[in-house]
Amino acid sequence: MTEFWLISAPGEKTCQQTWDKLMMATTRTNNLSTNNKFNIPDLKVGTLDVLVGLSDELAKLDSFVESVVKKVAQYMADVLEDSRDKVQENLLANGVDLITYITRFQWDMAKYPIKQSLKNISEIISKQVTQIDNDLKARASAYNNLKGNLQNLERKNAGSLLTRSLADIVKKEDFVLDSEYLVTLLVVVPKTSYADWQKTYETLAEMVVPRSTNLLFEDQDSGLFSVTLFRKAVDDFRHKARENKFVVRDFQYNEEEMKADKEEMTRLSTDKKKQFGPLVRWLKVNFSEAFIAWIHIKALRVFVESVLRYGLPVNFQAMLLQPNKKNMKKLREVLYDLYKHLDSSAAAIIDQSAMDIPGLNLSQQEYYPYVYYKIDCNLLDFK
């Protein structure tokens, strides 16, 4: 299970007692969840009206940062194309896997100094993640352009003989070049019509050079034949060829152009390889940064919400539950029984969809008598 429930409840006589009660109710007898204490430092509380405003801002910031974390993870999967199974091992936070990071969460005092006000800390996170989002857009756009151009060229060099580039198939000696009167055409002939072609090509127009056809290349369905004729017979030959289901390709042998195409392909391929390593490193580092920021926002939200709900002085225990998948419904019931005394109005669990009151921002979260936020570490949406 990659889903976690981050909850808080007020300290009984001590916070340890709150913790012990939860452990007793959820693990000792019935294995409903695996639990860890979630350590939130002594943050500056500030005034009540600031906390109320901050509660809404943090909900928006939470959604934004989660979306950036997912974008970075998804783009990592896109960039790693063929080795998507390696994506998970690149999605780390502070060098450890995400579940380890969350279950052993420690506030990063250096990045988010707790002497600062809660509003300042949320602004530091907001700036940091906005920067990551902007950088990702720029880097992804540059790499995608490169990849797109390369794919277009590769597509040109693959596919059916009717559409693909012929530059890497033909050689100079396949053509009569620099002749005032003669020209070599390239014709795509279905495999089933080879015999017809050999029988008829000399008679499709006047002035076709006898025995001038050669098979240059084959794919699954057709072959590419060369044929030499007088320039003035070309239009007539094309027309008659089409009637016989032979397709004359528009192709002129131009060494300069063909060389330029090859060089462009090599350049794009080299550029892509050059950018790949640094891009993956950037994604790893910034995924870690964004994910860490996201979990710090969850910590801020639990702190703010717990103070608003349970009052001052600050006295609550934050707890991280990893529900056992089969027992999620049962776990909800046990938590409800444990904490329903905290809020009589939550007797009917309010579902956001059932109750859309303007101005009541439950931020798409269900409402419970305890503070609750979900953290889902499954960040990849594989197509």
Automatic annotation (TrEMBL):
Alphabetized, the UniProt keywords read: Acetylation, Hydrogen ion transport, Ion transport, Transport
One family from Pfam that matches here is V-ATPase_C
**InterPro entries this protein is in?**
ATPase_V1-cplx_csu, Vac_ATP_synth_c_sf
| GO molecular function terms listed in the Swiss-Prot or TrEMBL record | proton-transporting ATPase activity, rotational mechanism
Q: Please verify whether the record's keywords include Transport.
A: yes
- GO CC, one annotated term: lysosomal membrane
Record carries keyword Transport: yes
Family membership: Belongs to the V-ATPase C subunit family.
| Purpose | Subunit of the V1 complex of vacuolar(H+)-ATPase (V-ATPase), a multisubunit enzyme composed of a peripheral complex (V1) that hydrolyzes ATP and a membrane integral complex (V0) that translocates protons. V-ATPase is responsible for acidifying and maintaining the pH of intracellular compartments and in some cell types, is targeted to the plasma membrane, where it is responsible for acidifying the extracellular environment. Subunit C is necessary for the assembly of the catalytic sector of the enzyme and is likely to have a specific function in its catalytic activity.
Subunit structure, briefly? V-ATPase is a heteromultimeric enzyme made up of two complexes: the ATP-hydrolytic V1 complex and the proton translocation V0 complex. The V1 complex consists of three catalytic AB heterodimers that form a heterohexamer, three peripheral stalks each consisting of EG heterodimers, one central rotor including subunits D and F, and the regulatory subunits C and H. The proton translocation complex V0 consists of the proton transport subunit a, a ring of proteolipid subunits c9c'', rotary subunit d, subunits e and f, and two accessory subunits.
Q: What is this protein called?
A: V-type proton ATPase subunit C
Lineage, highest ranks first? Eukaryota, Metazoa, Chordata, Craniata, Vertebrata
